[in-house]
Design a protein that fits this description.
Layout: H1 2-24, E1 29-30, E2 35-36, E3 54-69, E4 76-92, E5 99-113, E6 118-133, E7 135-136, E8 141-161, E9 166-169, E10 181-193, E11 196-205, E12 217-229
Antiparallel strand pairs: 1-2, 3-4, 3-12, 4-5, 5-6, 6-8, 7-8, 8-9, 8-10, 10-11, 11-12
Length: about 230
């Protein structure tokens, strides 16, 4: 997993020069200060949101996840560390309030560690959809709380039984495997300085990812992302 995080960070560093070039080519870039200067924009009483309604960004960071289940075979309540990487895009929903709708596409590694020498690796393609309130403290720094949800589809993963030294697919139709579909609530808070962005995100799974209707099996994950917006 560390190898994948390192590769993702290298990829982020690779795209940052091109993004920074686009940032410096902006008509709002002030070469004297090295920052974006929005003083020429037409401001509403809530800021310049009507004149800058769209952004796109890259995100990468670790995820800390667990699986809670009434079924002892699927219960992975001990935290597992994985990778979260993807792209985000947002647009303003009002010219008068700094409220944005944000979505994107992420590759997210979730799962957990079970009580009886089990380890679950659940890898998803995840699409979040949140409303984000962007509060600017000045022209460079903002804080961005958000709330919404996510849907996800399992694209790979393993269940490892260390006692019997067996490994098999995490997703399938057997009672000791997981359903591919997941969905739930997403909440968190981001901060941005110029083009640089970071957030703390929590996914609370609401879908039962187990096959037994009488046993609830749900994901949860805490993610720390860093990246860039432009």
């Amino acid at each position: 997993m560390k190898k994948y995080i390192l590769m993702a960070l290298v990829g982020l560093v690779t795209v940052m020069p091109a993004s920074a070039q686009s940032y410096r080519n902006s008509r709002y870039y002030n070469r004297n200060t090295g920052r974006l200067d929005y003083s020429q924009r037409n401001h509403s009483r809530y800021g310049n949101y009507s004149s800058n309604p769209f952004y796109i960004g890259f995100r990468v960071g670790p995820s800390f996840s667990s699986v809670s289940s009434d079924n002892d075979l699927l219960d992975g309540s001990s935290t597992k560390t994985g990778l979260n990487v993807g792209v985000a895009a947002g647009f303003g929903v009002s010219p008068y309030v700094p409220l944005f709708f944000e979505s994107g596409l992420y590759y997210t590694e979730k799962g957990g560690k079970g009580k009886d020498d089990f380890k679950f690796s659940l890898n998803y393609l995840e699409v979040p959809f949140v409303l984000k309130y962007i509060h600017n403290f000045d022209r460079s720094f903002s804080i961005q709380p958000f709330f919404g949800g996510y849907v996800a589809a399992g694209v790979g993963g393993k269940i490892k039984d260390y006692y019997y030294r067996e490994s098999y697919s995490a997703f399938g139709d057997d009672i000791d495997q997981f359903k591919r579909f997941d969905g739930g609530l997403r909440m968190g808070v981001g901060v941005q300085y110029d083009m640089f962005y970071a957030d703390l995100t929590y996914d609370l799974g609401l879908a039962n990812i187990g096959h037994d209707d009488f046993d609830d099996t749900k994901n949860s994950a805490l993610m720390l992302n860093v990246g860039i917006n432009f």
